[in-house]
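I'd like us to work through together how a protein chain folds, taking it slowly. To get us started, please write out a protein record for me. Label the sequence line and the structure token line clearly, so we can match residues to local backbone shapes. Once you have written the record down, we can walk along the chain together.
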Amino acid sequence: MAVLVLAEHNNAALNDATAKTVAAAQAFGGDIDVLVAGHNAKAAADAAAKLAGVRKVIHVEGEAFSHALAEAVEALVVPMMSGYDAFFAPATTTGKNVAPRIAAKLDVMQISEITKVIDASTFERPIYAGNAIATVKSADAKKVVTVRGTAFQAVASTGSASVETAAAPAGPFKATFVSEELQKSDRPELASAKRVVSGGRALASAEQFNQYILPLADKLGAGVGASRAAVDAGYAPNDFQVGQTGKVVAPELYIAIGISGAIQHLAGMKDSKIIVAINKDEEAPIFQIADFALVGDLFKIVPELTSKL
């Protein structure tokens, strides 16, 4: 058997999700090749070659890959799949954009957001906002799989795989990259942060969200998250949202402040190693999964916590 893993990267460096997807591919079995499709992405290809368990890295350069256009990646991957039994991609924005196109072209069913590989045709994945785990079995000859990185331990960078180059598919493609707006921050990126401080609707305003959540996050060197209720109310930007319809995180420490714990939010953070919850409602659902629960007024507790840190 052989598995093709799509590398998640920004051309200059690999995303941690790639190493976790390689770990899932190892559980699947067989030889593992990593595809690094980008623009001036040699550094990312070299980093992929160091991932433990990788047989080789396929490096493809092209302007259309600078922002991982789904059409371009699909045109590249589908012909390559004649030599592979499975295609694995991280369950990120990029992976979720690319994998369905590849599955459709191969005429197979996509297996989404797996959290465990049982064997080469059987996988586990969360359903009902993570309240149940489904065991799914695929009879398709080729598997197209997206991997929830929070469920796998990243492989070490101890490998020495070879790097091969391949030609990019001919364009032009119907979709073209126009522009992007990136929020710059000195804080760790939310999805990969080892510590996360999240605020909920109880903060009551954007000003108080910034006043109470941001200083604590800065003291901890943490990423900043928010519940959907806080985002919908305008207290925090969309890219802060943690949950079923936001980002799925599993940091070493997750501090939930003024978050009641709706199942949609829990689906995005319940795999965190240590969960600290601060809420004045002692019946809040968040306390059912918290390792440390503090019942009280966040407007008194958080400044005291921040000052002591």
